[in-house]
């Protein structure tokens, strides 16, 4: 099975500009393509993981990926999939975030010997003259067509800033620039990027009279149609300091039964024949499939050793083994204490078990928190420095554990 057919069989392809041309290009391993990553946070997350896996699959088939860091577009902010305007970041913050992206991307993509490129659109976007851009590129865009784009339509009721309105032009210019300078003939992205991708192909056609291509992948949704990659404590990050390997593992180990096969097909590199066989599994065997999924994904992001540690840790905690040896741990310092102690709400937030103090308060009041196997029902419950030095094992719900310890 060639790469195009495999992408279709895994259910990854959402929309294509030219199916036959794209199939021939990527099956022949002749496509230089790009995916953009705006540096809006200091780590990539599960949504980016889907894009990185697509780049890896295409690269293994001989195609050349360009990982485009959005040092320039992040300063504008993509309105796609947003109900409000993104937080404005400084150029220094954006570059610091982009530097962390580079490290994480290198785990998925082989940048050696020209097999892939890593570029930053700040290198050309920040140098553009506004009047020249309006005259050169602005005339190629119809405002009527732009307002019909899904990325803008959903924002019109709540208000779309002129700053964000320019985002499609910036992204289209990226494609146009890389088509000319690097022979990039295809842009890929999540399905929410379809309108922006079409803007780029149209700009290239109008300015250069040549064909360029676009392909989107399906968004990672649950069987209920909700985006995956969100937990009670926030996003599932690829940075182990934001989402530990154990927490990452547990997220996939605990997904709904109805989502297991979809995730195995779209996110792992396991052979489709093996996944088809697993689709017949039920009950205890389905839990085994979840364990395989969690191990495969944790290995891709954090390495085989961390994946094995996370799996054994989960088995120990929920199977009666030596839980303390494998449990994820949060280290506190004296600066985390107030008057020589730390209250339960602070500990829940510091450990990442809850996203905020209001979230922590709600969990305590609903009876969902224990500390050292004792239910905590007082939001003012505080732990002394001596108690914290000995270690306090927190649990939120049935499957979320963390040991906090004062060093």
From TrEMBL:
CDD domains: S4, TyrRS_core
Residues binding ATP: 230
GO molecular function: ATP binding; RNA binding; tyrosine-tRNA ligase activity
Alphabetized InterPro entries for the sequence: aa-tRNA-synth_Ic, Rossmann-like_a/b/a_fold, S4_RNA-bd_sf, SYY-like_C, Tyr-tRNA-ligase, Tyr-tRNA-ligase_bac-type, Tyr-tRNA-ligase_bac_1
Binding site for L-tyrosine: 34, 167, 171
This protein's record includes keyword ATP-binding: yes
Keywords: Aminoacyl-tRNA synthetase, ATP-binding, Cytoplasm, Ligase, Nucleotide-binding, Protein biosynthesis, RNA-binding
EC number annotated for this UniProt entry: 6.1.1.1
Motif 'HIGH' region: positions: 39-48
Transmembrane residue ranges: none
Motif ('KMSKS' region): 227-231
Family according to the record: Belongs to the class-I aminoacyl-tRNA synthetase family. TyrS type 1 subfamily.
Known role: Catalyzes the attachment of tyrosine to tRNA(Tyr) in a two-step reaction: tyrosine is first activated by ATP to form Tyr-AMP and then transferred to the acceptor end of tRNA(Tyr).
The protein's name: Tyrosine--tRNA ligase
Organism of derivation: Candidatus Scatomorpha intestinavium
Gene that encodes the chain: tyrS
